[in-house]
């Protein structure tokens, strides 16, 4: 709700309020029926209808430049992420493997003209991977045995770059808790591990932006994030491409023959239909 109010900035435009509310509340949901239910509640409360007439021309142009299939799903994701980053909100993309989450982050960085740093999280990720650590000093360090070296996240905060924490939910909860202060509106981090006479607190550069991706919980042992951590992100659901138009754009990037593309799509729909026919009924 606070993000909703901040984006509106005091505007009384109900159509815009509906669009912003849809971005924040409905676009995080993973079930189409839930999306429709939330939209119905917003419509009833605001006494307005959703007027989503956004254009994707700029996104499609960047897709072509970066040799990425210009699908509607990709354009939607980049547009929603861009709206969140314009208000300095950290973004969490949730979706199945191969859905284009990382590619969407790369496209957005290209559109904004920013350097994108990617940090791949895993079961053995440590806080030092994000923040930095004391390392053996080089000879020119003035005789000290150890010196502090900033981690990927702290470097991006200082320089005003974009950072992507890929597969965030693979990292341990104790490690992720160190990120809480970066996700707050003040966007700061205290480097207690650095030591010294005074505690150094790093405040993010105004251009710094934070992105994260994860697969849904239960996917090959992956888990959901804690509610406290998830609430600090603007969460977006990244569904897999399913429309024939998007699939045609994907296939066309490697198979320019139109007739062969249509035949391949027809075969894919045939196989999918057979799988649906043999799928056991729900218990």
Keywords:
283 residues, 5-stranded parallel beta sheet, two-stranded antiparallel ribbon, 13 helices
What's the quick description here?
With 283 residues, this protein is of the alpha/beta class. It contains 13 helices and 9 strands.
Could you spell the SSE succession in H and E letters?
Answer: HHHHHEHEHEEHEHHEEEHEHH
Distance between the termini: 38 Å
Shape: globular
* Percent of sequence in beta strands: 5-15%
Mean pLDDT: 85
Number of strands: 9
Overall radius of gyration:
22 Å
The biggest sheet amounts to: 5 strands, parallel
Give the topology.
Blueprint: H1 2-8, H2 14-26, H3 32-46, H4 57-65, H5 72-85, E1 91-94, H6 101-112, E2 116-120, H7 127-131, E3 132-136, E4 146-150, H8 152-159, E5 162-166, H9 173-176, H10 180-183, E6 188-190, E7 201-203, E8 209-214, H11 227-230, E9 234-237, H12 244-252, H13 258-278
Parallel strand pairs: 1-8, 1-9, 2-5, 5-8
Antiparallel strand pairs: 3-4, 6-7
Helix pairs in contact: 1-2, 2-3, 5-6, 12-13
Structure in words:
It is built from 13 helices and 9 strands. It is of the alpha/beta class and 283 residues long. It has a 5-stranded parallel β-sheet with strand order 2-5-8-1-9, sandwiched between helices. Helix 2 runs antiparallel to helix 3, helix 5 packs across helix 6 and helix 12 packs across helix 13. The longest helix is centred in the C-terminal third of the chain and has 21 residues. It is globular. The model has no long low-confidence stretch (mean pLDDT 85).
């Amino acid at each position: 709700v606070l993000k909703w109010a901040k984006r509106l900035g005091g505007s009384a435009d109900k159509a815009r309020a509906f669009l912003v509310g849809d971005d924040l509340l409905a676009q995080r949901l993973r079930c189409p029926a839930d999306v429709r239910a939330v939209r119905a509640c917003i419509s009833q409360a605001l006494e307005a209808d959703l007027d989503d007439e956004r254009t994707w021309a700029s996104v499609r142009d960047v897709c072509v430049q970066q040799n990425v299939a210009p699908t509607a799903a990709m354009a939607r994701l980049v547009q929603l992420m861009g709206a969140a980053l314009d208000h300095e909100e950290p973004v969490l993309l949730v979706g199945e493997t191969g859905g284009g989450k990382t590619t969407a982050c790369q496209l957005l960085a290209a559109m904004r003209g920013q350097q994108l740093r990617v940090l791949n999280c895993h079961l053995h990720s440590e806080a030092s991977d994000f923040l930095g650590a004391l390392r053996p000093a080089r000879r020119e360090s003035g005789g000290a045995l150890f010196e502090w070296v900033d981690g990927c996240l702290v470097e991006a905060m200082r320089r005003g770059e974009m950072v992507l924490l890929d597969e965030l939910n693979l990292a341990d909860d104790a490690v992720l808790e160190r990120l809480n202060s970066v996700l707050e509106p003040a966007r700061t981090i205290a480097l207690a591990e650095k030591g010294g006479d005074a505690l150094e607190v790093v405040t993010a550069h105004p251009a710094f932006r934070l992105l994260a991706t994860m697969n849904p919980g239960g996917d090959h042992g992956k888990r959901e994030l804690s509610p406290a951590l998830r609430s600090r992100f603007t969460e977006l659901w990244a569904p897999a491409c399913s429309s024939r138009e998007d699939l045609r754009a994907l296939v066309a990037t490697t198979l320019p023959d139109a007739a062969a593309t249509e035949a391949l799509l027809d075969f894919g729909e045939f196989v999918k239909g057979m799988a649906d026919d043999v799928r056991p009924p729900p218990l």
